[in-house]
């Protein structure tokens, strides 16, 4: 008999299949229920991540995005339907997520993430999930996560390729160790729909592992997914001792 | 000796539309020699236009290990090596 104190009847049935996993079970489910995640951007990556985090039973999701749904989003941003075009992404997303799992609290924030608001957005969350479509905002989030000691699950895509790396402040490389300078930004980025799906779902998986303590996160390891040949590469990434963001020589503000 | 070169993301398709190419190099050729060959033959762009230095955001892996942790540009290549050029990606 599985121990299920702290879970409602709905939750016991809803999460039945994952409660049956010996290394997961009710203990992990209850941890998940008590935790909160910031999904920083609900585009292609954020759609897939938010749907799986919600379905899995995270306690609270804070979704942040300043955009409206556009027709060109719909090849990959699976939170939205054709009739959502023109609507605020976070409001369409929160409706969809609440209908998937009403046990999850959804906080919708229609803002652009900047250096000015990022620390407020990180407040009271346990893990941050990368749903961005540009380097600049990713670096802002990375730096704030290092300062505020929040784990950051980084994901990104380009055409048929995906990337994933989990960042835990003080315990491995950060995004700046991985990408030491601001790269050229291509806009709009070409993206084949399934790739942000794959990466977003892996981000949800990493976030759930971090929140529950189950399994081992992909720390110091960059996963490179090549969808064209269906090859997965794992590259060891070292922490840069001179990293301006997480290195020992960082000048504190 | 023969080496295999793979190019990712924004560099993909650089080898006349392909992401992968096999090259014959003289014995003892270094990573630097390979890059020169790629630049001459395919117009491979992995340097900063200003400084001419290699773009530090592009990871170069030799058999899965980062070249900067081997001998950098001076790393000697050997027959059968797989060299990957991996620019960062920023889409979502």
For the largest beta sheet of chain A, what order do the strands appear in spatially?
A: 3-2-1-4-5-6-7-8
CATH topology of chain B: Ubiquitin-like (UB roll)
Question: Got a strand count of chain A?
Answer: 8
CATH domain class of chain B: Alpha Beta
Helix-residue proportion of chain B: 10-25%
Radius of gyration of chain A: 18 Å
* Global outline of chain A: globular
Number of strands of chain B: 5
Largest sheet, strands/sense/barrel of chain B: 5 strands, mixed
Query: Which stretches of chain A are low in confidence, meaning pLDDT under 50 for 5 or more residues running?
Result: none
Question: What features would you highlight for this structure?
Answer:
heterodimer, A: 253 residues, alpha/beta, Rossmann fold, 8-stranded mixed beta sheet, 9 helices, 8 strands, B: 92 residues, Ubiquitin-like (UB roll)
Chart the SSEs and their pairings.
The complex is a heterodimer of chains A (253) and B (92).
Chain A: H1 9-14, H2 16-19, H3 25-33, E1 36-40, H4 44-56, E2 60-64, H5 89-100, E3 105-109, H6 118-122, E4 127-130, H7 135-148, E5 152-158, E6 161-167, H8 175-178, H9 194-212, E7 221-226, E8 231-236
Parallel strand pairs in A: 1-2, 1-4, 2-3, 4-5
Antiparallel strand pairs in A: 5-6, 6-7, 7-8
Helix pairs in contact in A: 4-5, 4-9
Chain B: E1 2-7, E2 20-24, H1 31-42, E3 59-62, E4 65-66, E5 82-86
Parallel strand pairs in B: 1-5
Antiparallel strand pairs in B: 1-2, 3-4, 3-5
Describe the model.
The complex is a heterodimer of chains A (253) and B (92). Chain A is of the alpha/beta class. Chain A has a single domain (10-236), classed as 3-Layer(aba) Sandwich (Rossmann fold), CATH 3.40.50. Chain A is 34% helix and 18% strand. Chain A contains nine helices and eight strands. Chain A has helices at 9-14, 16-19, 25-33, 44-56, 89-100, 118-122, 135-148, 175-178, 194-212, and strands spanning 36-40, 60-64, 105-109, 127-130, 152-158, 161-167, 221-226, 231-236. In chain A, helix 5 links the parallel strand 2 and strand 3. Chain A is globular. In chain A, 45% of the residues are buried. By secondary structure, chain B is of the alpha+beta class. Chain B has one domain (2-86): Roll (Ubiquitin-like (UB roll)). Chain B contains one helix and five strands, in the order E-E-H-E-E-E. Chain B has a five-stranded mixed sheet with strand order 2-1-5-3-4, with no helix packed on it. In chain B, strand 3 and strand 4 form a beta hairpin. Chain B starts with a strand and ends in a 6-residue tail after the last strand. The mean pLDDT of chain B is 95. The A-B interface holds A 41, 43-46, 130-135, 138, 155-159, 161-163, 178-181, 183-186, 189-191, 196, 224, 226, 228, 233, 235-236, 238 and B 8-10, 12, 19, 55-57, 59, 61, 64-66, 69, 84, 86-92.
């Amino acid at each position: 008999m599985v121990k299920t104190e702290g879970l409602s009847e709905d939750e016991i049935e809803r999460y039945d299949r994952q409660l049956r996993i010996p290394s997961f079970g009710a203990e992990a489910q209850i941890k998940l229920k008590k935790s909160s995640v910031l999904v920083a951007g609900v585009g292609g990556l954020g759609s897939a991540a938010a749907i799986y985090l919600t379905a899995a039973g995270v306690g609270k999701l804070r979704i942040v995005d300043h955009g409206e749904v556009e027709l060109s989003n719909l090849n990959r941003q699976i939170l939205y339907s054709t009739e959502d075009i023109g609507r605020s992404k976070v409001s369409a997303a929160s409706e969809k997520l609440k209908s998937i799992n009403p046990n999850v609290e959804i906080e919708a924030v229609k803002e652009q993430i900047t250096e000015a608001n990022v620390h407020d957005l990180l407040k009271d969350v346990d893990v941050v999930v990368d749903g961005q479509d540009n380097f600049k905002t990713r670096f802002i989030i990375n730096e704030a996560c290092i300062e505020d000691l929040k784990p950051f699950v980084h994901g990104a895509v380009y055409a048929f390729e995906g990337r994933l790396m989990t960042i835990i402040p003080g315990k491995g490389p950060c995004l700046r160790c991985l990408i030491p300078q601001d790269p050229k930004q291509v806009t709009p980025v070409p993206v084949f729909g399934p790739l942000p799906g794959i990466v977003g779902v892996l981000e949800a998986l990493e976030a759930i592992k971090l929140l529950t303590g189950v399994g081992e996160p992909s720390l110091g390891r960059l996963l490179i997914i090549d969808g064209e040949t269906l090859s997965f590469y794992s590259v060891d990434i070292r922490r840069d001792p001179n990293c301006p963001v997480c290195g020992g020589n960082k000048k504190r503000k | 000796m023969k080496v295999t070169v793979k190019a990712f993301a924004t560099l993909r398709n650089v080898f006349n539309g392909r992401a992968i190419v096999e090259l014959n190099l003289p014995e003892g050729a270094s990573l630097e020699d390979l890059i020169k060959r790629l630049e001459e033959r395919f117009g491979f762009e992995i340097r900063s236009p200003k400084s001419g230095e290699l773009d530090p955001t592009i990871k170069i892996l030799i058999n899965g290990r980062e070249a900067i942790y081997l001998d950098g540009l001076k790393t000697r290549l050997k027959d059968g090596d797989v060299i990957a050029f991996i620019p960062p990606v920023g889409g979502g």
